[in-house]
Specification:
This protein is an alpha/beta fold and 374 residues long. The chain has two domains: 2-154, 3-Layer(aba) Sandwich (Rossmann fold); 170-373, Glycogen Phosphorylase B (Rossmann fold, 3-Layer(aba) Sandwich). Helix content is 39%, strand content 15%. It contains 15 helices and 13 strands. The chain has helices spanning 23-27, 30-39, 74-87, 99-108, 132-136, 143-154, 170-189, 194-199, 229-241, 255-264, 277-286, 296-303, 317-320, 352-355, 359-373; strands at residues 2-3, 14-18, 44-50, 65-69, 91-94, 112-116, 127-129, 213-217, 245-249, 270-272, 289-293, 308-311, 328-331. The strands form two sheets. A seven-stranded mixed sheet has the order 1-7-6-5-2-3-4, sandwiched between helices. α2 (30-39) runs parallel beside α6 (143-154). It is globular, with a radius of gyration of 22 Å. It starts with a strand and ends with a helix.
């Protein structure tokens, strides 16, 4: 463990946090940002994110500026590096560790540069933490704890381990209301076609505030993490029988999953494939329950205190479970090879971990969360 220079925190005016990649990674850095803001209430705190994921932190009050770059553009990287240099940061934390993030950290010229000792080009950092396991003195580390460890190593109080948090903006809520009104109007003028039935009772009033709904997210990054669509259809039927409306979301490129879900389910399902990240956050905040695969959307739901049931396949449950105080249940089938990287199933040829999860187990978890949340 290396920490060659003691920081005079009272003189620190500007701090940069670098956290590249996914939605879930971004949500799970919020506990560290909360701890940092609490420690440095007067300092300028900026975060650097990839442009496509940055909207997830829209309105987040623990940072002053959300800086972005396009990961596909060399020009954007150079321009961002020059901007970071001009900002004259005193301290930089890198929570990613890849080549691009290290390039940005070094380009700042900051006096104090924090990272982990396993990072590539670690000689470009002057404060290195051996591992989050060493900091917390345990092998069972959540992603949020991994981030917090680096801040704790720097002297930021993190022992209370803040939970993930996102802000629901008024802009996103208004936009969501407009979408609900459009869906409701479509139902009124539509015929008894599949699309009209899919809207069903899920947007009867045209106001998201009035809806008693459960949010489903039936997709995931890998096949080893994605529960079968027909199983989600059975869950939707169960929820409908219990008096809940059902809303399911994906991206446009995953639209086919939504169509399969509606065709396989006897329950009416309202679907969206074009919501922005702030709109998804707003929608999740209004849901009575979230049911979905381990994904960034599951972490969004957890960060707005929505009760959740999260279905795991290949992922590390200890590392990626919901980081929240809201009621939640994890559903999985334990196998000797689980967890694994998840890109493909090397053990069975097909992802037995996610394929083995029973619909009954998910329904039992839903009932249990309801009981906890009464």
């Amino acid at each position: 463990m290396k920490n060659s220079q003691k920081i005079k925190w009272e003189s620190v005016k500007r701090v940069l946090v670098v956290r590249l990649r996914s939605i879930g990674d971004t949500v799970l850095v919020t506990p560290s940002l909360i701890a940092l803001r609490r420690f440095l209430p007067e300092a300028r705190i900026d975060i650097l994110l990839e442009d496509w994921v940055a909207p997830v932190l829209e309105g987040f009050d623990a940072v002053d500026n959300i800086l972005t770059f396009s990961p596909k553009s060399k020009k954007s990287r150079v321009e961002t590096a020059l901007k970071l240099r001009r900002n004259k940061y005193d301290v930089v934390f890198n929570l990613h560790g890849g080549t691009t993030s290290t390039f940005f950290v070094r380009s700042t010229g900051a006096k104090h540069r924090f990272g982990f000792s396993h990072y590539r080009y670690k000689s470009l950092y002057n404060h290195l933490l051996s591992s989050s396991k060493d900091f917390w003195d345990t092998d069972k580390i959540h992603s949020a704890e991994q981030h917090l460890a680096l801040f704790g190593f720097a002297g930021v109080p993190v022992e209370d381990k803040p939970k993930s948090r996102l802000v629901v903006t008024e802009k996103a809520l208004r936009s969501l209301e407009e979408r609900f009104r459009a869906k409701a109007q479509s139902r009124k003028v539509g015929t008894a076609s599949g699309s009209a039935r899919a809207v069903g009772t899920a947007c009867g009033s045209g106001r998201v505030e009035d809806e008693n709904f459960v949010l489903l997210h039936p997709v995931a990054a890998f096949d080893t993490k994605q529960w079968a669509t027909e199983n989600f259809a059975r869950v939707a039927e169960f929820l409908h029988e219990k008096g809940f409306s059902v809303i399911a979301i994906t991206t446009k490129k995953e639209r086919e999953v939504l169509e399969d879900l509606k065709q396989n389910s006897r329950a009416p399902i309202l679907t969206f494939d074009d919501l922005s990240l702030p709109e998804i956050t707003a929608l999740a905040s209004k849901a009575k329950l979230f049911v979905g695969n381990d994904s960034g959307i599951a972490h969004i739901a957890a960060a707005v205190q929505t009760p959740s049931v999260v279905i795991f396949g290949s992922s590390n449950i200890v590392h990626w479970r919901p980081w929240t105080d809201a009621p939640n249940e994890i559903v999985y089938e334990k196998l000797p090879c689980q967890p694994c990287p998840g890109h493909f199933c090397a053990e069975f040829g097909e992802p037995k971990c996610i394929l083995s999860v029973k619909t009954e187990s998910v329904i039992e978890a839903i009932v249990k969360v309801w009981l906890i949340n009464v």
